[in-house]
Structure formats: C-alpha cells, structure tokens
Amino acid sequence: MRGVVCTGNSIRLDRNLPEPQILPGESLLRVRLAGICDTDLQLARGYMGFQGVLGHEFVAETLDGKRVTAEINNACHTCDTCRASRQNHCPHRTVLGILGHDGAMADLVAVPIRNLHKIPDAIDDRRAVFIEPLAAAFRMIDQATIGLGTRIAILGDGKLGLLCAWVARTSGAEVTLVGKHRAKLDLAGAEIQTVLLDQTEGLGRPFDVVADCTGSASGFATALSLVRPAGTLVLKTTIAGEYDTNLAPVVIDEITMIGSRCGPFPRAIAALATGEVDVTPLIGAEYSLDDAEAAFQAAAARGARKVLLHVRNN
Ligand SMILES: [Zn+2]
Ligand SMILES: [Zn+2]
Questions:
Q1: Which residues, in sequence order, are CB contacts of 53 under 8 Å at separation 6+?
Q2: Whether the model pTM is above 0.90
Q3: How far is ligand 2, taken at its centre, from the CA of residue 95, in Å?
Q4: What is the CATH number of the domain that holds 169?
Q5: What's the whole-number average pLDDT of the chain?
Q6: From ligand 1's centre to the CA of 198, what distance in Å?
Q7: Are 141 and 252 members of one domain?
Q8: CA-CA distance, 277 to 82, in Å (whole number)?
Q9: What pLDDT score was predicted for residue 314?
Q10: Which of 65, 85, 172, 221 has its CA 20 to 30 A from that of 189?
C-alpha cells in the first residue's frame, strides 16, 4: 500500500508499504481523506523522533462501509491512570501517527475499535477532517470557566487559534482573537473581535481567560500581559524552544495556568453536524496522496490553511 513515511528528518511517499499490523482490539480502516497538521510538520523535522506513517486527522471507512474517524491516544485501559479515567495520559499509550503507532496518511490504517467515532452524514469529509483538532479546542471549555460573558482572548491566528475562538464563542464568551495577519484574523467572522498583535498595548488587562495558541515562546509573555489578576491562562500549543519568561507575575497576580491538549470527539462532532462551528474558512489546498510531498510543502508555507490529502478517489 501507499503511505507517507516520516523518516526522522523528512517525509517521503512509500508505494510499497506492508499492510498495517492489526493489534488485539484494533480494526482495519480504508482511509478516505487526511489533514496535514502543524504537528506533522514538526514530526517531519524530527520532533519526538517518530519514524513511521504520519497522520492523525482523518476520515476513513470501516471494511463494511461506515464513515468513521478515531481518537488518537491508544491507551492500555488497565493501568491506574486509565482506571482513573485519564486514558489520554496513559503512560503506556501510543499515539496515532505521532508516537509508536502508524498513522492515517496511507491506504489503510489500524486503530483501536473503542477509539472509533461514526461520522454523521451532515458532516462531509472535508469538514470531518477537523474533528480531532476541533475536539482539542473544546478541551479548553472542559478545563477553564468559559461561559456567557467571559472575556477571553485567543492569541494566534493560525488554525488552532481560529478553532479555539469559534469554540469559545459557542459558550457565549466575548471573544477577542489576537494575531499578526489581518487576512487570517478576517477568517474569524463577525462574531469574533480581532486585534493585531502590535495594537494590544491599548487593551489593558481586561481578559478573564487568555489562551496561547501561538506555538511560539513569545506568546506566553503576551498572554501574561493581557490576563487580569486572578485570571486564567490556557496553554494550547507546545513550542519547539524553551520559555524565557519571568514567572513572578503568575504568583503576584495569582494566575491559574492550565495545560490543554486532546479533547472530546463527541462535542466536536455535534458542533460540526449542527453547523454551530463552521470550519470551511480553514480548508486549504487539496492533493492526492500521490502528491504528498508537494502537499507537505504547501502545508509548510506561511499562512497555509489546512492542506488535505485525498487517499481514495471520492
Ligand atoms: Zn494535529
Ligand atoms: Zn493505561
């Protein structure tokens, strides 16, 4: 079969991969469409030392033709962490296309049956590719107090920033999206206030919650400068480097800091199915799996929207 293989420092399309090994409890799926995520670009540069088939945002079919996607953390379900309902933190887990398990940028992928979610007909393939990153955005709502009238700033006008802005809006929050690019901020739509990063100084510190989705080390200091005393700072992105920030304001202002990663698939599926969140503005260029190398170049371009890889000719 074909698959996009991460070699540890680059990617290539391999046309002669063996079919995936199917572990106990797993099911074999035929992949229809996969999305390229910034994490894939980082993995291709050697992040986490992953070697194998990439891909953790995808739509596939079961062998009897049902459209599905899957959660990406493959937990053991027997350890203390799993039994305490923290499967996403299972110390024995593999992660689809990221850690110790081949991913979905291939003709076939094997995933744990208990991780599968059916995709309603109301969500077409292009939107369904966003279920995983949208679920990650919804995680923030589980963790922080974000509701009617909460003043929240989202830092970063990339794909995750926009998803987080729309998700915060679903809870009735007053959302301000802060970014460097007017064109990307404009994708947010009329219900989201937008501010260019170099114009945040006049804002003061009005925000109950600030979510850093910048993926850069400087985002943290900006977030800290905007959150009110006794407010909450949500860290949504890992960064490649290290933070070099004075943490004294966290103590003095009693800021609550929350790390935030993977989230609830059912909530994301419901939001897409009802149109509560419309991800259409984030859909970018589309390629065949055969052109995966060009697709990765396009995904790495500045300001790229979500690049899609068509695996089956739908
Ligand atoms: Zn991702
Ligand atoms: Zn476990």
A1: 3, 4, 5, 6, 17, 20, 97, 102, 103, 104, 105, 106, 109
A2: yes
A3: 12
A4: 3.40.50.720
A5: 95
A6: 28
A7: yes
A8: 31
A9: 54
A10: 221
Whether residues 180 and 294 share a domain: the answer is: no
Query: 76 CA to middle of ligand 2, Å?
Result: 4
Neighbours of ion ligand 1 (CB under 5 A): 37, 39
> Do 174 and 93 share a structural domain?
no
How remote is the CA of residue 83 from the centroid of ligand 2, in Å?
Answer: 7
Identify the CATH number of the domain in which residue 109 sits. 3.90.180.10
43 forms beta bridges with: none
Residue 78 alpha carbon to ligand 2 centre in Å: 5
Q: Pick the ligand that lies closest to the CA of residue 306.
A: 1
Grade residue 203 by pLDDT with cuts at 50, 70 and 90.
Answer: confident
Give the up-direction half-sphere exposure of residue 38: CA atoms within 13 A in the CB hemisphere: 18
The answer as to whether 273 is a domain residue is: no
User: Which residue, among 26, 77, 81, 271, has the nearest Cα to 166 in the 3D structure?
Assistant: 271
User: Which ligand number lies closest to the CA of residue 73?
Assistant: 2
Count structural domains, the chain: 2
Q: How far is the CA of 89 from the centre of ligand 1 (A)?
A: 17
Residue range(s) defining the domain that contains residue 235: 135-259
Sole residue written with tokens 């053991």: 76
Question: How many Å separate Cα 165 from the centre of its chain?
Answer: 13
Is 55 a domain residue? Answer: yes
What confidence score (pLDDT) does residue 307 get? Answer: 98
If you average pLDDT over residues 234-252, what whole number do you get?
A: 87
- Per-residue pLDDT band at 250 (split at 50, 70, 90): very high
Residues 106 and 48 in one domain: yes
Residue 267 lies in a domain: no
Same domain, 52 and 139: no
User: How many angstroms separate the alpha carbon of residue 158 from the centre of ligand 1?
Assistant: 13
| Domain membership flag for residue 268 | no
What's the 87 CA to ligand 2 centre distance in angstroms? 6
